[in-house]
Amino acid sequence: MAALSIDSLFDAAIRIQMMERSISLTFTENSVRIRFPTTRRLAEFLDVPHYYILPYFAQMEEQDLITRAERVGIMTTARGSKQLLALMQKNYTGEMQEILGPDIFSALTRKD
Q1: How many CB atoms sit inside 10 A of residue 75's CB?
Q2: Which of 2, 82, 85, 100 is the most exposed, having the fewest neighbouring CB atoms within 10 Å of its CB?
């Protein structure tokens, strides 16, 4: 069984997005939100029981990394997007450039 942490869930979310070759972005007035896989999808991907994932999602909400909305799904907050994009840039630049295109990925990861 995989050791779980917030970082491992963020990494798993990226790997799921790479497998599915799909990343959903929502642009708000001053931030970008990234759709996060469901808790069940992450548990299945990591081969752990669903209830193992739930406390980490509660922690991510408390740390203002994600937000959950009924019938909308799980999205990163501005802070969570920054963390997820930094991880993408550090470990998966080539793959993310293939999915998003180099210009979009560069714009998303640019440090102003």
Answers
A1: 20
A2: 2
Phi and psi at 87, nearest 5°, equal -65, -40
Digit-coded pLDDT (tens) for 39-86: 999 999 999 999 999 999 999 999 999 998 887 789 999 999 999 999
Residue pLDDT, tens place only, 7-31 = 999 999 999 999 999 999 999 888 8
* Kind and range of the H or E run holding 34: strand 32-36
Contact 33, 68 (CB under 8 A): no
Phi then psi dihedrals of residue 33, to 5 deg: -115, 140
Q: What is the largest CA-CA distance in the chain?
A: 40
